Structures are given as structure tokens and as C-alpha cells.
Amino acid sequence: MTDEIVNRIAKSKLVTIDLEELFPKGERLVFDISKWLYEGLILKEKDFRDSIKQQTWQNYKDNYIAISCSTDAIIPSWAYLLVSSNLTPYAKTVVVGDLNLLETVIFTKIIDNLDISFYKNKSVIIKGCANKPIPNTAYTALVQKLQPVVKSIMYGEACSTVPIYKNKKE
User: Fold this and answer.
1) E strand or H helix at 10, and its extent?
2) Tens digits of residue pLDDT in 17-66
3) CA 162, CA 81: separation in Å to the nearest integer?
4) What is the pLDDT of residue 2?
5) Residue 76 · residue 45 · CB < 8 Å
6) In Å, what is the CA distance from 137 to each residue of 3, 52, 57, 124?
7) What is the C-alpha to C-alpha distance for residues 7 and 50, in angstroms, rounded to an integer?
8) Which residue has better confidence, 22 or 10?
9) Which helix (H) or strand (E) holds 82?
């Protein structure tokens, strides 16, 4: 008499959300404006504007851009706005900051637009261990969005989860 091996995980009503599946295509680039500063430190408005005019903005089509300055220069806000204004028609998203902030902004938009009606009153596992750079803030935002509607939230893999939230009303 042999006992049949039953995959209880496959038969469970757990629903898994994998943020890696929501990771949008498109290159992430840092646009460093220090190359347009005099000696890398001083912004001369006329020279800066000339550099803006000479830039081939179409090269940034369908990319995600983080505008930054790699030197300790003091950059007026309008300079970032001017660069952003020229990138906006081509880039998918533009931020002032580093690649971590860029990824956070990208995922904030994704999660804000995520239809969670399917997850109502369900037990949800937020999959961990991504191969792509999913920011921790994305997981936090997802928990905040799901918590009002789900039965429970767990983190990890179906075979080994960490409980995060359980609706106490049930």
C-alpha cells in the first residue's frame, strides 16, 4: 500500500503576487548633468542651455531616466526642470535622483494602478527573492494597497511563508 504524494500547495486557495512579473521593460539610465558644468562645478546658464539644445533627446526614447549630478555642485532647480522638460516627450519616466528612487517611482505608479479586486477576501502571498531590482518600498506599497481587501498577506514562497497580516474581523 503506497501513499500518494499530494501537493497541498497546488490545491490551496493561496494567490501569489510576483512583483517581478510587473517589472516594466525599458532601460534605466542616469543622466548626469555634471558634464555640462564648467569644471564640473559651476552652472553657466548660457552654456547649459546650449548643451540642452545640442543634446539628442530621441536617444532616451522608452527609457526610464534618473537625472543627477555626480559632483558636489550646487544646481538650481530650474536646471533639473529644463532637462526633465526635454526628456519628458521621449522617456517613460523621469525623476531627479538615483536609480533607487527611479525604481521606487516606477513601482509606485504600477502599484497605484494595480486592480486588486481579484484579491478581495483571499489569502495572498507576496513572492520574495526577485532577480530584478524590486525596491523594498514596492513591497510596502503593495501591502498597504492589499491590506484593506484581503483575508491575509504572507511573504516568501508558498512552501515557506512569513505571515505579514491577517484580517481579524473573520
Assistant:
1) helix 8-11
2) 999 999 999 999 999 999 999 988 999 999 999 999 999 999 999 999 99
3) 43
4) 59
5) no
6) 45, 33, 30, 18
7) 65
8) 22
9) helix 77-87
DSSP class of 57: G
DSSP 6: -
How far apart CA 130 and CA 47 sit, in angstroms, is 43
Cross-sheet strand order for the sheet of 64-68: 28-32, 64-68, 93-96
Name the helix (H) or strand (E) containing 140.
helix 136-146
How far is C-alpha 99 from the geometric centre of its chain's CA atoms? 9
Query: What 8-state DSSP symbol labels residue 12?
Result: S
The residue among 95, 92, 106, 98 whose CA lies nearest residue 138 is 106
Q: Does pLDDT of 8 surpass 70?
A: no
pLDDT (tens digit per residue) in 126-140? 998 888 889 999 999
Provide the Cα torsion 160, 162, 166, 170; round to 10°. Answer: 30
Q: In what order do the strands lie in the sheet with 15-17?
A: 15-17, 123-127, 152-157, 160-166
Q: Euclidean distance between the first and final Cα of the chain, in Å?
A: 41
Assess contact for 106 and 122: CB atoms under 8 A. no
Residues 6+ apart with CB under 8 A from 117: 149
